[in-house]
Amino acid sequence: MATILQIIGFKNSGKTTLLNALIRACRTENYTVSAIKHDAHDFSIDHAGTDSYSFQENGAEAVIIANSRQHAVMEQTGIDLKTAIQKLPNTDLILVEGYKEGPFPKIILIREKAEIEHLKNTKAVHKIATHNPALKEEAIFIGEEQALNVFAEKLIKEFLQ
């Protein structure tokens, strides 16, 4: 079973930057990794004018677009975190961006001190980090590339070794 780690925070707090650093750190240590991105807004991975888009527009419940290197399944239904995890291939680590209410260990990214208060009831908080140098006393500063990479490497060692 994979280790699961969540990265949460408000918009533009650096969640994706940290998640990408964690993916690179995993790959450097030859661990396999999958990622789940929660999007609170309506999104589309398909585009008007494509065949697959027209299948959905005409009422298909699910559409798969595939070739010999990759595939995507587009279903006309939401998905909870548990089900999303079950759909992933077997990997050493699953990184989850978002799903604040999820039960897994979390790294919280903050932009401002007030966000700590907003997220104080969050469960399973492992660490609080920031890209904002003014918050070095409240959170682990990862606003410089070296600090970000060191933090990611430490987390990978902590969770996978």
N-C termini distance? 14 Å
Question: What is the CATH architecture annotation?
Answer: 3-Layer(aba) Sandwich
CATH topology category name: Rossmann fold
Going by CATH, what is the homologous superfamily?
P-loop containing nucleotide triphosphate hydrolases
Number of distinct helices: 5
InterPro entries: MGD_biosynthesis_adapter, MobB_dom, P-loop_NTPase
Domain Molybdopterin-guanine dinucleotide biosynthesis protein B (MobB): 4-128
GO molecular function, one term: GTP binding
Organism: Listeria swaminathanii
Structure description:
- Residues 4-128 form the Molybdopterin-guanine dinucleotide biosynthesis protein B (MobB) domain.
- This is Molybdopterin-guanine dinucleotide biosynthesis protein B.
- It holds the Pfam family MobB.
- Helices cover 30% and strands 25% of the residues.
- The protein is of the alpha/beta class and 161 residues long.
- It has one domain: P-loop containing nucleotide triphosphate hydrolases (Rossmann fold, 3-Layer(aba) Sandwich), CATH 3.40.50.
- The strands form two sheets. A six-stranded parallel beta sheet has the order 2-5-1-6-7-8, covered by helices on one side. It has a two-stranded antiparallel sheet with strand order 3-4.
- The chain is globular and about 55 Å long.
- The relative contact order is 0.26.
List the helices and strands and how they pair.
Elements (H helix, E strand, L loop, with lengths): L2 E7 L5 H14 L4 E5 L13 H7 L4 E5 L4 E5 L5 H7 L5 E5 L8 E5 L3 H5 L6 E6 L9 E2 L3 H16 L1
Parallel strand pairs: 1-5, 1-6, 2-5, 6-7, 7-8
Antiparallel strand pairs: 3-4
Helix pairs in contact: 1-5
